[in-house]
Amino acid sequence: MNAFRFLHAADLHLDTPFSGMSGVPDRLRAHLRESTFAAFDRLIGLAIEEEVDFVVISGDIYDAADSSLRAQLRLREGWDKLGKHGIPVYFIRGNHDPLSSRRLRLALPPHVKEFGGQVESTTAVRRKDGQPVAIVTGVSYKTAAVSDNLSLQYHRQPGSSLYHIALLHGNVEGQEGHDAYAPCSLADLQASGYDYWALGHIHKRQVLCKAPWVVYPGNLQGRSLKETGPKGCYIVDVKDNGEAELSFRRLEQVLWLEVQLPIEGLDTEEAWKTLVEERLDELREEEAGKITVVRLVFTGRGSLHGLLQSEEETTELLQELRRQESLRLTELEPHAGTSALSGGIVWPASLRVETGAELDRDQLLSEDSFLGELLRLGDKAAGDAELLSEITAQALADLEGHRQLRRHMKELGLPDKADLLRRAEEMAATLLAEEEAEGRLPS
């Protein structure tokens, strides 16, 4: 087997509209709208810089089936740059850009291979000498919703010693919060005989298996606070013995983050505001040349809990932080990238309060009281997965039975069960403690 290098990306979602964010200045909104293209440009630059032998993209290149001409032109521009350096591209279509959608107005260049509605394979070669190095297999979605297990149609070519790469847009192991398109199990993929499963559809970066490699690179660019953290692609180096090494490379222009700020030890409103401003300054330095959209989550227990219950206070702080950041945005020329800044832009999208009144938890855990029993049950559930599932299922049963609430829950996404229990325990403990303090509960 010959050593080679390839780039694995997925879920480009070019020309995402970024609707629904309130209070965003027009100049910042323009950068948000451009961010998917900026990430794609970085992908093209990375492929050229790293001298990859080829690029694979596992579906959802466009954000909508009726892709804009702007998106098609930018895509073709990127393909042409790769073509000048002799870098082929292999891609499949997903649920956002199925074959049933309006066809591309612009023809694909010869070095770009789109897989059709039936599983097919092609041989990839090493650029420097034209030696065959891999069998690349893929299938595109015919329609936006695919319920069949497409992975069962992938079969390793008998007798071939070449590295086998499978492109699949689908949901492995029924991951929550994502449509169950092309559902399959990890066992299905392991039984196929392929060496590398280049997955798409799930926007969270994750390596599900290393033998064979089963990899979600995540999307190139986060698009909301449901898609937090660094985004990008994988550079994959395959050695001559068939072993592979993966290197994640960041490509995002806009970083979406949720930042927790504990209030323990804060005694004054001034200390609270200073904590927030210092954390935002740190983010500007850490992510210089980028836009960071952040949700600030205040956690813990402390004397400022009462102040944070005032919507007026938190709203005023959010407005002031946005005002200050808007001034920084004026430093940008209308068509300049954020790299023109000495630091980054940090836009506070929202504030969330998950604080509680000061409590002596150890003392409460030892008490024979309703609150003590509640905390003991929470600790027990935290170490008992079955009990945790039972409690959360009971708590969410009424919500699941309401059609509109069920739809909103799916759109918003739920935290994991342990985090959900922690939040519920914190809220209940705070409410009960306040009730007891005001004498409205029996001792």
Give the helix/strand layout.
Layout: E1 4-9, H1 26-49, E2 54-58, H2 69-84, E3 89-92, E4 112-114, E5 120-125, E6 132-138, E7 163-169, H3 186-190, E8 196-200, E9 206-210, E10 213-216, E11 232-238, E12 244-250, E13 254-262, H4 269-286, E14 291-301, H5 305-308, H6 311-329, E15 345-356, H7 361-366, H8 370-382, H9 385-400, H10 403-412, H11 417-437
Parallel strand pairs: 1-2, 2-3, 3-4, 6-7, 7-8, 8-10, 13-14, 14-15
Antiparallel strand pairs: 1-11, 5-6, 9-10, 11-12
Helix pairs in contact: 1-2, 8-11, 9-11
Description:
The protein has 443 residues and is of the alpha/beta class. The protein has helices spanning 26-49, 69-84, 186-190, 269-286, 305-308, 311-329, 361-366, 370-382, 385-400, 403-412, 417-437; strands spanning 4-9, 54-58, 89-92, 112-114, 120-125, 132-138, 163-169, 196-200, 206-210, 213-216, 232-238, 244-250, 254-262, 291-301, 345-356. The protein contains 11 helices and 15 strands. The strands form 3 sheets. The chain has a 6-stranded mixed sheet, covered by helices on one side. A 6-stranded mixed sheet has the order 5-6-7-8-10-9, with no helix packed on it. Helix 1 packs parallel to helix 2 (69-84), helix 8 packs antiparallel against helix 11 (417-437) and helix 9 crosses helix 11. The protein is globular.
Which labels suit this protein?
443 residues, alpha/beta, six-stranded mixed beta sheet, 34% helix, globular
